[in-house]
Amino acid sequence: MADILVLDDILDSGVLIKCILERQGHTVFVHTEEHEAMDYVRTNRINLAILDLKLRSMTGIEVLKCMKQDRSELKVIMLTGYPTLETAREALRLGANAYCVKPIDKVELENSVRDVLENE
Amino acid sequence: MTTSTLFQHWNYGTFAPGALSRRKYLVFQLLMTLEAQCLERVAWLEALQYGTLYADWSCVERECAALESDVAAMVGLLRELHPLRWIDIAEYTAKVSFYARLAMSTPEPVFSPPYMLSVPFASLEGAEITEESQAKVSQETASRGITEEATVQKVTVQKVTAQDFACIITPASYHYIIEYNDLRQTLNAFLEKVHMVNSDELVEVCKAMQACIVEAKLPYEIETAILDASLSLSPDRAPLTLCAYTSGEEHFYSSDNVARTMASNKSLPDDAQVLYYQELIPKDVPQAYLVAMASKYTPEKVLTRIHEGRADSECAVLVSLTVQNIKKSSAPRFSPERSLPQPSLAKRITPAMRHVARLHITDDHESMEHTSSYFKPENCRSVHDIVRFCHTVSMRHMFDLMSESFPQNQGLGGARLVCTGLPIAMRVLNLGDGLFPSATGKARISPEDFHCLPIWALCFGFEMGKKNVLKAQEYSDALAEKESAKNTTKSKTRSSRKKISSLKKVKNTASCMTCNAVIAAHYVYAVCRFSHQTFIIESQCGGPKDEAFITLRLKTGHGSLAVNRERLDFCQGVLKNMGFSIQLHGGLLQAQCTKLGHGLDETQLQRHLATLGQMLAVSALPLDNQQTTAEAIDIFMKSGAIEATTYGH
Fold first, then answer.
1. d(CA B366, CA B392)
2. Euclidean distance between CA atoms B374 and B388, whole angstroms
3. Is B107 on the interface with A (CB under 8 A)?
4. Exposed (0-12), middle (13-18) or buried (19+): which is B388, by Cβ within 10 Å?
5. Phi then psi for B263, rounded to 5 degrees?
6. Inter-chain CB proximity B99 and A105 less than 8 Å
7. Residue B334 · residue B265 · CB < 8 Å
8. Got the DSSP string for B14-38?
9. pLDDT by residue (tens digit) across B475-486?
10. Which of A90, A99, A101, A107 to substitute to test the interface with B, most B CBs within 10 Å?
11. Cα distances (Å, whole numbers) of residue B274 to B25, B268, B277
């Protein structure tokens, strides 16, 4: 089971993901602030970060870049309701392991998390 | 292959007055047309995946864009058909389409500077260096304003002169010239023809593409830079040597890394060098560069690239200019090693096809009264899922409309459930004279109530294949149980247990096949689905003498490539034996048989229909592992073909 960080500017969305993944036995930490999340990743043993693309003061891509600079081995899933080819390619280029589009259901989320963690 | 005559029978007049507007009727017609069109597009992409067709990647992108647009149109029409239902389908369609687009499209090429680079010539040969010479080169390159990446480490020269440098015209320059002259669409238009032309025509197509490039205009900045570089390489007008290479971008990396790539001895395929010019004077270099660009479009190069599954924009041209008067064989080469594996078109398209062709939603657990709980927009994971969803629910909606306007206990109109004694959820919509008066007032009817000959023959075939249908149900149940067991192991949560218990409930009442048919006195249009296979059978039989025909459309949607091919080969073999005209493209088989065209009498056509029903039942299961497809066809034709003695209406 993994330690997972969720960063979403809408707390309810993050909590929903937390509920789904904790049922799978993971430990999930939900953040709504970019800098708090980046600090948390820097100082804690996190296996996977799930990042929303649209955040408060930064974009998910910027956060991904910072997190990867600090922890290159960190697994990352990008999650967005506003997908574009450009952000998808940029995220994958920067090392994101998956780019998921909302609405995402329970099974799809569980499968994506499993696939990314199993490829470790 | 064939145009359906469904709407000649199921015309606006068959609906009860006030049941639906003309616009909604037209919307439904359009939906059915788009469904057929979408499946043909999916099949075209499958043919590339199966390796039975090749085409330039620009065609793949064009076909995917058209498919996306058709599917979006289907979803819009579905919403128009019933604005209050299936509201969320648009959202899931956008999601699925995005994944498909991401998997199929190619990124824009890099066409930003630098367009020219100078690299130490010796580095091209991979020679060893001394620290002293390294320092000299670094000093020289710095004074020439060459990027840090271009200052490569392996040179043997003791004294740096112009002759020690090679000038590289980067892939970005090639891409920019294509953009500058707006050639992308023109080239793609030529490339789209490649899979349709013979070798002579291919030569002509390639010549036309080369002419476009040679006649292109060089942007002022690039032309000047090439001339400056040529003069700088050859201040005393010594002849220059030009070498052009074409290959996938990954061999060149991005343009700003070209020099580093070359210096670090990255390998290029053996045949990457496409042009070699000696004795060039500087003023001729710009035109020679255009010829070098055009050398990418030789028939061999174009075909190789297409078979490798690369888009034209993913292959660039790199040109080196040197002052050395060297022979072709010792011209700068990046590496003698050729270790990079070449991806193929089929290999490239396969991962993307799970977002396009793979079917995830099925209505095989649809019972007489209930539809599968899995048959929902949120479970659509591919374009094919969306197409199937739109087709199924729009058909169902029209059946319901007819049933509401013609209550079952009044006359013979409307949709009826058919009890066949087989695990088939079957509904027929009688457009008139399709049922005997004995069916009046019955909520459920049996095949004996069919006045319509073609549907009766089809059901006769189902009955002949009863053993297989029952086996198919066992197979389907076993799959459901296996899935439940997998869920039990994976999760012990209450929600999963609920899911399993609901699956088990489904098992007892489920049908393994659905069949929705529109019937009239001499006509049937039946959509039969078993698991991921869809069979659409249409027939006119027993009516006006010369109009009799049977058409079949079979679309696979799941399973391994081998299983699908086996099923398609089996059906193709059986249909060939019966004399059908067949067209097979990807996972779509279309077959046709007409009374006039095939010299058949009515009874033979009816027998063919019965055999089709039986074939459908037999092909529902994967074929016996012990048999080859040819053996299976032979056994089917010998033991399974409907004998005239056992057949009669």
1. 12
2. 13
3. yes
4. buried
5. -70, -30
6. no
7. yes
8. GSPTTSS-HHHHHHHHHHHHHHHHH
9. 666 766 666 565
10. A101
11. 59, 12, 10
Cβ(B364)–Cβ(B620) below 8 Å: no
List the one residue out of B612, B583, B584, B581 whose CA is nearest residue B596: B581
**Confidence at residue B495, expressed as pLDDT on a 0 to 100 scale:** 43
Closest chain B residue to A79 measured between Cα atoms? B95
For B100, which residue in chain A has the nearest alpha carbon? A85
Q: How far is B102 from chain A (nearest CA, A)?
A: 6
Q: What's the rounded Cα separation, in Å, for the pair B137 and B119?
A: 9
Name the residue in chain A with its Cα closest to that of B98.
A83
More confident residue, B129 or B223: B223
| pTM (two decimals) | 0.84
* B101·A85 Cβ contact <8 A: yes
Q: A101 and B92 in contact by Cβ < 8 A?
A: no
- Taking the Cβ of residue B102 and every Cβ of chain A, the question of whether any pair is shorter than 8 Å is answered with yes
Of the listed ranges B47-51, B192-196, B435-439, the one predicted with least confidence: B192-196
Q: Any CB–CB contact under 8 A between A118 and chain B?
A: no
Any chain B CB within 8 A of the CB of A88? yes
**Closest residue by Cα to residue B188 from B316, B56, B47, B304:** B56
Please write the tens of the pLDDT for every residue from A24-52: 999 999 999 999 999 999 999 999 999 99
Per the CB < 8 A criterion, the answer to whether B503 and B462 are in contact is: no
- Do B572 and B598 touch, CB atoms closer than 8 A? no
Tokens describing residue B180: 């500058």
B48-52, B135-139, B547-551 — which is least confidently predicted?
B135-139
Distance between CA B119 and CA B112 in Å, rounded?
19
Chain B residues with CB under 8 Å of A99 CB are 102
At B265, which amino acid appears?
A: N
Residue A34, token pair as written in the block: 């970019």
ipTM above 0.90 for this complex: yes
Q: Of A23, A101, A105, which is closest to B493 when you measure between CB atoms?
A: A23
